[in-house]
Amino acid sequence: MLKRAKILIVDDDPLNRLVLEKTLASEHDTFLVENGEKALTFLKSTAVDLIILDIVMPGISGYEVLIQLKENPSTQALPVIFISANTSHDDEAKGFELGAMDYIAKPFSPTIVKARVRNQLLIKQKNDLLEMLASIDGLTEIPNRRYLDENLSREWRRSRRAGTPLSVLLMDIDHFKRYNDCYGHRAGDDCLKRIAHALVGECERASDFVARYGGEEFAAVLPDMGKNEALQFANKLRDAVNGLNIPHKASLNADHITISIGVATTECGQVYGEHTLLEEADLGLYQAKDAGRDIIVARVIRTQ
Ligand SMILES: Nc1nc2c(ncn2[C@@H]2O[C@H](COP(=O)(O)OP(=O)(O)OP(=O)(O)O)[C@@H](O)[C@H]2O)c(=O)[nH]1
C-alpha cells in the first residue's frame, strides 16, 4: 500500500501549481514554491519524498535545480519528475541524463500525473525498505555496523559544521565467551537480543542511536552531547544492563551480565576524523576492561 508522501511542487505558473495541488493533495501532503531558489531553500529545512519540477522558470532553471540536488548527499537520491512544455526528445533526454526519474509534458493530464507520481513513490518506498533492511542487524534487529558508519560520518560532518560536541560509546559484554561456554550459543544469542533492546530503550532523543558494532560489541552515537552528559548516558546504559539481571555464574567480575564502556567525545571536531573518535572509544573500552570490567572510561579529544 502506498503511504501518504510529502511532495514539493515547483512551478512559476500559479495555475499549474493549483491544478497539481488539487490533483495530489487528497492523497499526499503538498508544498508549493514558485522558483528554483525557493525550492533549494525549502529543501534545506524540510525533507520530502518527491519533487515535481518545472524546467523553464525565472532565475535558475529546473535543470540547474536538479544538478544542485545531485551534488548534495542529503538530496541526491530524491526522485524528481520534470514537468515541462519543452517536449522535444532532446529536452526529455537531457532531463533523464541529469537524473530525473520521469518527464511529464505540459499540458498535462491530472490522471497521468497521479499515476506517474504513484509509480515513483512505490519505487521509493521499496528502495527505502531495502535500504532499511540492509541497515538492520539480523539477530538483534537493531541498526548494524553499516548504519553506524554512515550515520556517524553524517553526524561528524554536522558537528564540524556547527561546532557542536559529538560523543561515541563503545560497549562490550564482559566475559561473554564464558557465558556462551556455560549456557550455550543459543542462550548467548538471546542475551545479545535482550541487551540490544535494553540499550535501544534508553535512547530518548531522536538523534541518539545504538547499533550492534559486531559480535558482542555495541556502539552509541550521541550528537550534541559533551563529555559529562555522555558519561551520564553511559551510566544509564550500564544500569539498564545490570537491571536485566541476567545470571552469569561463569563471570569473573559479577554474578550477572555486565558491560564495559569506552566513551569518546570531540568537543569542537575540526581536526580528527570520525575514525579517531571510534579509536578513542575503543581505547577507553580497553582501559575499562583492564580496570576490572563493569566500568566506564571517558576520553575527550580536544582540537586546537
Ligand atoms: N552467542 C553468540 N556469541 C557471539 C556472537 N558474536 C560473538 N559472540 C561471542 O562473543 C565472545 C567474545 O569473546 P571475547 O572476545 O574473548 O571476549 P569476552 O569473553 O567477552 O571477554 P572480555 O571482553 O575480555 O570481557 C566469543 O566467544 C564469540 O563467539 C553471537 O552472535 N552470538
Give an overview of the whole structure:
The structure is a single chain. The protein is α/β, with parallel strands linked by helices. It has 10 helices and 10 strands. It folds into 2 domains: 6-134, Rossmann fold, CATH 3.40.50; 145-300, Alpha-Beta Plaits (2-Layer Sandwich). The chain has helices spanning 14-24, 36-45, 62-71, 89-98, 110-133, 145-162, 176-183, 185-201, 227-244, 274-290, and strands at 6-10, 29-33, 50-54, 80-84, 102-105, 166-173, 209-214, 217-223, 259-266, 296-301. The strands form 2 sheets. The chain has a 5-stranded parallel beta sheet with strand order 2-1-3-4-5, sandwiched between helices. The chain has a 5-stranded mixed beta sheet with strand order 7-8-6-9-10, sandwiched between helices. The longest helix has 24 residues, at 110-133. Guanosine-5'-triphosphate (GTP) binds at residues 139, 172-178, 180, 185, 188-189, 192, 215-216, 289, 293.
